[in-house]
Amino acid sequence: MPTRAASADPAAAPGMPGLDSAEVARLRAVHGPNAIPEARPPSVGVRVLRSLRDPLVLVLLAALVLTLVTTDLTDAAVIALVVVVNTTLAVRQEVNADRAVRALSSLVTPSATVTRDGREQTVSVRDLVPGDLVHLRQGDLVPADAVLVAGTGVTVGESMLTGESEPVGKAPAPPTGPRTTPDAQLDATVDPSVEAAALEAATLYAGTAVVRGRGTARVTATGSASATGRIAALMVGTQQRRTPLQLRMSRLSGHLAVAAVVLCSLVFALGLLRGEPVERMLLTGVSLIVAAVPESLPLVVTLSMALAARRMASRHAVVRNLAAVETLGSVTLLATDKTGTLTEGLMAVSSTWQPEGASPESLMRAVVLCNDVGDGVDGGLRHDPTESALLDTAGAAGVDTVGLRAAHRRLAEVPFDSRTKRMTTWHAVPQESPWASDAPDPQATGTDPLATGTSVQGPGSGVLVVSKGAPEVMLRPDVLDDPPELVAEALEQASTLAAAGERVLAVAIGRVGALPALAADVPRLHLTGLVALRDLPRAAAAEAVAACQRAGIEVGLVTGDHPATAWAVARAVNIPVGSGPVALHQVPEPQTPAGAPGVAEVSRHRVIARATPADKLELISAWQHAGHVVAMLGDGVNDAPALHRADIGVAMGRRGTEVAREAADVILTDDNLGTVVAAVEEGRRVYANIRRFLLYGISGGAAEILLMLAGPLVGVPLPLLPAQILWVNLVTHSFAGAALGAEALEDGAMTRGPRPPRQNALDGLWWRLGLLAAVVASAALAGAVVAGDHFGPSTALLALGVGQLCVALALRSRTARHLGRQRLVLPGALAAAGLLLVAAVTVPPLAQLLGAHLPPLSSWAWAAGSGLAAYVAARLVRPSSL
Question: In the predicted model, what is the mean pLDDT of the chain?
């Protein structure tokens, strides 16, 4: 289609062609990119210090100090090696995670529609420069500080700057003087004599959201010079808060550290009572503390969440909030919008209806005029699916959409609003217009067709009023000046079409001699007809809903559409409708009308129609109060409050508005509902792997403490030397622990209900880890007794290490075969750990450092038997679901 004439759109800025490419390049060189300054990534030193704050690592550092005080350099070296290895892995993973986040951010870089080189085009927000003409519509985020120079009904939410929840109306500022240079154009946009209040009413701030209306604004400040940039500068260097899971794990680390210190103090006291040297028992106690605490826990948590975020990105789900990764695994209810989420969001006119004697051409012409879609293809305004379908149908019916709009210049409008569910436009009526013969005042004159209270100048003049909206809004006596029987017939037709799942719009026209004093003062009109549109469900929506239901996640449909339309879509995708959909509002009034159910009453239903944005907020709060962990899926500006209120907000990345994406925790880059299921799967995988590591790591530490406590009772005063304890801890936790964080999700995990959100990470694991610790410790102690005093510690070293590594192998995911090449990560890590364990008794320099000896073949056989026993025990007690 050709580009729509500027005069047809009062939201455009007439006479302002925008910048040209040369001017843009010059201004970008002066002002730089339109990007908020990012905090410098922490230095390596800062990252190291941050990783050393964990309680478990602090215990290791305290142990290092004690060994240095006692001049035990060998054990000090081993402890230092443990700290260095874990810190290196943690810092490296943190750096990789930062890189991944920056890479993910590039997937959702926002764009803006601007006029450059005399035509509209879409550019990255980073490329905006002062002086650019930016076109804004409902749902857009203001990309830079700007002054509104043309527009209609523009209302902006500035809560992110002011804290005020009520949107603020904006009025265009009058341009002045001819344009000479880009900077002069910018300076001349607003008359210096305009009062401060008028200037504020025209000022738009970067990052705020266009709640209603549309308009054109001239960019005045970008990047760090914008209001948002100045605020962001205050945040440079501010450290991001840790996620709830990381905080819980940190508390668990503290508890484990305290327990380890108490138990190892007991070992120390018992040794002194047996007459062991103080220095030896001090080193033993320190070594046990090091062995008992799973110091790799912080690494495993960070690794699991970062790997999950990367996997989710590869499955088209970009995580904006790392906490969302783990929370996704707890979701119990998924509330979803209809249009663009369960359906394709690509409307098509399926049928029309006109009163007897009415002209179908009149209906088609009316929907062309009362329509906000641009005619342009190259750089045209972004399309609304419903508006596009109406315009395409009219064009296919032979209506010259461009000529009609050019001839019937739009004079004023009341934009569509989700509360009123209606749009009204006023148009000039030229003499050659199909509607000119009935003009109420052909001789009326006026000097300015946009001036309030004036009529349109010229022969055949008058003002045509076109309105379209929901049938329950339009087909009312206070809206239509038609016979009651005609209105009743139209209502019956609308109900029939809606019952079939169609979206129905009623269209009416009228004429007046002049524009009204108030834009909202719409006269009574005459019904032109009904238009039925259908938005087919997405092909994968039904399977995605079924997958959620199999995973124990309830799915609810919450929409502002007609109840019958909601019912048809819900049935198509197999959302249980019960006795039918529930409509919160029969008419779009601010208060619930008498007889209509309230939000609290309908929250037990799962198909809810005629819901306003405020209703969605109340519904989510009601579900959360009932104990649900709620994920909200939406794409429109009206979904943004609900996305922000939900435990997890999920926005569509392609069709979604900037407001919705900014309010969400997760963005679906493929707009596929099935991707939500994949994201939930990753959330459950993260939590399961953390529990898997806790069972492995804590049972291993407990086995070492049991070994040292029980040894004296069977005549082995010191089953392991301090350096040997440290070495076992290093080779078992660091390698296998990190590898366990990458395991696949268990078979059947997505057919069980979500875990309780307040579940302790160790629930159901205590007796299992106690049993595993007893088996591994018993095997190692028996090996030490059988091998005798000389080879006892070395045999215990091998038996203890092999036992723990076999526990890790037994606890791995049953679905590891689905990991591809990753299935070799854990076996590879265990093999590396096993080689280091063998090196402890076979490599002379290392054996001498650890005080170990090359044991006889019987000790090797005993170690193998210990591993087999540990493997069998772990397989027997491993939970069916972690």
Answer: 77
- pLDDT over 90 (residue 259): no
CA distance 615 to 591: 11
Residue boundaries of the structural domains of the chain: 9-31+112-221, 44-102+241-315+679-877, 318-343+538-671, 348-534
d(CA 265, CA 270): 9
Query: CA torsion angle for 483, 488, 491, 497 (degrees, to 10)?
Result: -110
Strands 607-609 and 554-558: parallel
Q: Which H helix or E strand runs over 648?
A: strand 648-652
Nearest-angstrom CA–CA distance, 503 and 131: 42
Cβ proximity of 368 and 425 under 8 Å: no
Cα separation, 726 vs 834, whole angstroms: 15
Residue written as token pair 């007459």:
275
Q: What is the mean pLDDT of residues 771-788?
A: 92
Q: Are 795 and 863 in contact, with CB atoms under 8 Å apart? A: yes
Instruction: Give the range among 252-256, 669-673, 711-715, 780-784 with minimum mean pLDDT.
Output: 252-256
Band the pLDDT of 449: cuts 50, 70, 90: very low
- Band of pLDDT at residue 211, cut at 50, 70 and 90: confident
Mean pLDDT across the stretch 293-311? 72
Half-sphere exposure of 790 (CA within 13 A, CB side): 4
- Burial of residue 637 (CB within 10 Å: 0-12, 13-18, 19+) is buried
The tokens for 755 are 């875990």
Burial of 838 (0-12, 13-18, 19+ CB in 10 A): middle
Specify the CATH number for 318-343+538-671; select among 3.50.30.40, 3.90.950.10, 3.40.50.1000, 3.30.1330.10: 3.40.50.1000
Tokens matching residue 99: 């890189």
- The residue to which tokens 């907020």 are assigned: 617
Q: Report the amino acid identity of residue 611.
A: A
793 sits in which H/E element: helix 766-811
Which CA distances in Å does 845 have to 64, 841, 842, 857? 22, 10, 9, 21
The domain made up of 44-102+241-315+679-877 is a member of CATH 2.70.70.10: no
If one looks up domain 9-31+112-221 in CATH, what number appears? Answer: 2.70.150.10
CA pair distance 125, 143, nearest whole angstrom: 6
CA quadruple 148, 151, 153, 156: dihedral positive or negative? negative
Q: Which positions are annotated as active-site residues?
A: 337
Contact by Cβ (8 Å): 654, 283 = no
309-314's contacts with Cβ under 8 Å and 24+ in sequence apart are 309/97, 309/100, 309/101, 309/104, 310/100, 311/682, 312/666, 312/678, 312/679, 312/682, 313/100, 313/103, 313/104, 313/107
Written as six digits, the tokens of 816 are 């590891």
What's the Cα-to-Cα distance from 842 to each of 81, 222, 836, 854, 856, rounded to whole Å? 20, 66, 10, 6, 11
Does the pLDDT at position 194 exceed 70? no
Closest CA to 626 of 618, 615, 636: 618
- 371-376 contacts, C-beta under 8 A, 24 or more apart: 372/214, 372/415, 372/416, 372/423, 374/3, 374/4, 374/9, 374/120, 375/1, 375/2, 375/3, 375/4, 375/401, 375/402, 375/405, 376/1, 376/2, 376/3, 376/4, 376/120
- Map residue 149 onto helix, strand or coil: strand
Residue type, 394: A
The CATH architecture assigned to 348-534 reads 3-Layer(aba) Sandwich (3.40)
As given in the structure block, the two tokens for residue 114 are 């601007």
Give, in order, the Cα–Cα distances in Å from 579 to each of 325, 568, 571, 576, 608. Answer: 36, 13, 12, 9, 12
pLDDT at 810: 92
Rounded-to-integer distance, Cα 682 and Cα 685, Å: 5
List CB contacts of 706: < 8 A, sequence separation 6 or more: 773, 774, 777
